Structures are given as structure tokens and as C-alpha cells.
Amino acid sequence: MTTDPYAWIEQSLVTIQRADWYRSVQTLSDRPGATVVLAGREVINFASNDYLGLAGDERLIAAATKAIHELGTGSTGSRLLSGHRELHRELEMAIASLKQTEDAIVFSSGYLANLGAIASVVGKRDLILSDQYNHSSLKNGAVLSGAAIIEYPHCEVVALKTQLSQQRQNYRRCLIITDSVFSMDGDLCPLPALLKMSAEFNCMLLVDEAHATGVIGKTGAGCVEHFGCTGKPLIQIGTLSKALGSLGGYVAGSANLIDFLRNRAPTWIYTTGLSPADTAAALTAIQVVQQEPQRRIQLWRNVDYLKNLMQQQLPHLKLLPTESPILCFQLPSPSDALRVGQHLKDAGIFAPAIRPPTVPTSRIRISVMATHTTEQIEKLVAVLRNTD
Q1: Are 186 and 192 in contact, with CB atoms under 8 Å apart?
Q2: Which of 18, 68, 134, 368 has the greatest number of C-beta atoms within 10 Å?
Q3: What pLDDT band is residue 388 in, cutting at 50, 70 and 90?
């Protein structure tokens, strides 16, 4: 019997390395943008979720700085205990206005928003139907809830209906959970069909708009707006850390839902409130999204330009179906993905290799930003064309 109860960790790391699953952080040393300094060298950044280029925007920086001077660096406690600021409420009302819901509640991260919301609305007597490609936060929120969980094949509405037909009557409540934009594929969930299914089987529907907020829809309100589902009975989750260039998460929905979460969501009740700086930056970002649609228009121009170039010049790289700024092409193995990722980095392009267990098949994930230039996009395609 081993005398070191931690000895298994070293062997586990060896196994991870042998499978080419090992990960390490990569240090950036300047402000976020279409180019970044990575390990002391400037590279074109196709690895960021900063779709609108707001994380380095001077207005967000000014708003964050002003909030720090006026309110300090931290909220100092949970919002129910001692950490609530009027600024938090202003942000929540701005989110509700953007999403056209009755109310919203802000969490300290999108991950916490999913954990707290899911675990609050269902429990041990309930059922969760979860898309198999859902984000880790959705999956872990489902586990935390204690509900029975059934994963349905990715975006397969017929399979979902079959499961509901067989299982729904056995449970008190039922919750369907899905990403709206799937972050490692780039495709969209079939939201209208899911809403129809939820109505037919008396289910709640939770949709995570993390990669859609600010990006998709006529006003940047997300896939709910894009699909014409605004005002439908939904639980909408999102982040402030992607297109909105800050930090935090939110739930938007009915006034009763939000009031319930204030009283029952442990990841809101027992967590320090979002910092004043992050709150002010996110509030300013929402104002920019609403006042400057040209940013979103430019983003989609860049997406279309890159997609067309890749289809014309790189037909051997089969892009996964995408309706978002996320473009992915699959590779045979983790080692192939690492090789292509390193080739891109050597040529001055940062586009990461994504490998199991994050995804079932290895791939290169490309994130397009509104601030990418035509020349930067063309360089990416040229480098990929010269990949062995």
C-alpha cells in the first residue's frame, strides 16, 4: 500500500501528456485586441471571445477606472449582506432592456449563473434534458441540481421528443438546457423547435446566450432575438466576459424568476458581488452595443470574408457548420491539432488547438473579431494554405 496518498497525481499527469491532452497557460502581456503580445512576440489574435473588440476599448477602461475611484476595488460582501451597489441594479436593468425581459440578475461569472440557476429551478424529483455538446457549466449545473439527467444527441429534436414522450410523466418538473451558440463548433441550437417542444411537454427551457450576447440578432440581443423568440417563456443565461469585454454572468427572464433566484440561487446568495469596475465596464459595453451597430455589422463582414476565403482556397479543410464568429475545422488527432496550432503560432497567428476531453474530436478553433483587418484575415488563410 502506498504511503503517499497524492502519488496518483503524477501518474495521471503522465497519462494526460501521453494522450496529447496536456494543457498549459500562455502568457499575454498587453491589452486585448486583434493583435496581442504572446510570450514576448506580437501575433494576430484569433483565439479571443472579445468579438466586438471592447475589452480594450477606452470607454470601458474609463468607466471601470471611474467606478474604482468612486466605489473602490471590491464589493466587499455578498449583495444580500453588504455588497449591493446601485450600479449593480443599473446593469441588471440594462441587461433586461437589451434582452426585452421583465428583469435580470447579475452573477460573478457566467459559470456561477448556470450552476445557480439550474440547481435552483430543478431538484431530485425532476428531469433535465441536456444537449450533448453543452458547455461544462450547463452540465455541471445539471449534476449539482440532483435531477435525473438525459443527454440527447446534438441538436436532434426528434430524439429529444422521443425522450420526453417516454420520460416526462415520471417527473415533477422538467428542464431542457442548451447553449444557443455552441462554443466549440459555432452552430446554433434549434431554438424555435425547442420552445415548441417545451410547450408541448410542459417543460421549462434554459438557453445559454454566452457567445450570442452582443453578437447575434438585430440589436445584439442574442439568438432569442435572431429566431424571433423574444418574449417567450425562457430562462436566458449569458456572460459579460465575451462580446461585452468585462467579467460576470446574468440570468434574464420574468420578474418572478429573478425574484426567486435572489432567494434561492446559492451561487448568487453566498458569493461576493461583482466588482464595481467589472460592473461599470459591462454597463458601458451594453450602451456601445446598442449605440454602435456598425461594430456588429463589421464583425459579420469579417466572418463572411474569412468563411468565403477558406471555402475557396482551403477546400481540404472542412469547416464545421457555423452561424457565428466561431469557425472550426477538425483534425485526425490531438497531435495533429497541436502541430497545426504550433505552425500557426510560428507564423505569427494565435489560434488554439482544441482537444479531448473538451471536444470529442480535435480541431483548430478560430474566433473572428470586428477589429480584424482584411490583411490579418488573408494572412491567416495564407498560413493555413501552407500547412502540411
Answers
A1: no
A2: 368
A3: low
Amino acid identity at 69: H
Q: Where are the beta strands (DSSP E) in 13-131?
A: 35-38, 41-45, 103-107, 127-131
Which runs of E-coded beta strand occur in 80-186? Answer: 103-107, 127-131, 148-152, 174-179
pLDDT band at 198 (very low <50, low <70, confident <90, very high): very high
Query: What sign for the dihedral angle of Cα 96, 102, 103, 104?
Result: negative
Start-end of CATH 3.40.640.10 domains in the chain: 58-291
In residues, how long is the chain? Answer: 388
Q: Which three cell numbers stand for residue 188?
A: 446554433
Q: Is the separation of the CB atoms in 378 and 337 below 8 Å?
A: no
Note whether 101 and 253 are within 8 A (CB). yes
Residue 81 has a CB neighbour count (10 Å cut-off) of 12
What per-residue confidence (pLDDT) applies to 1?
57
State the amino acid at position 285 in one-letter form. A
Distances in Å between the alpha carbon of 242 and those of 52, 322, 343, 369?
A: 9, 18, 26, 11
Task: Round to whole Å and give the CA distance between 62 and 322.
Answer: 35
- With residue 365 as reference, give the H or E element that holds it: strand 363-367
User: Are 193 and 157 within 8 A, CB to CB?
Assistant: yes
Average pLDDT value for the chain: 95
Q: Is 128 helix (H, G, I), strand (E, B) or coil?
A: strand
Q: Does domain 20-49+292-385 have CATH number 3.40.50.300?
A: no
Cell numbers placing 201: 411537454
Cell of 33: 485586441
Q: What stretch of H or E contains 250?
A: strand 249-253
Whether domain 58-291 has CATH 3.40.640.10: the reply is: yes
Phi-psi map region of 208: left, alpha, beta (phi>0 left; psi -120 to 50 alpha)? beta
Q: Could you give the residue range(s) of every CATH 3.90.1150.10 domain in the chain?
A: 20-49+292-385
Report the distance separating Cα 356 and Cα 233, nearest Å. 35
CA angle 241, 242, 244 (to 5 degrees): 75
Torsion sign across C-alpha atoms 358, 340, 348, 20: positive
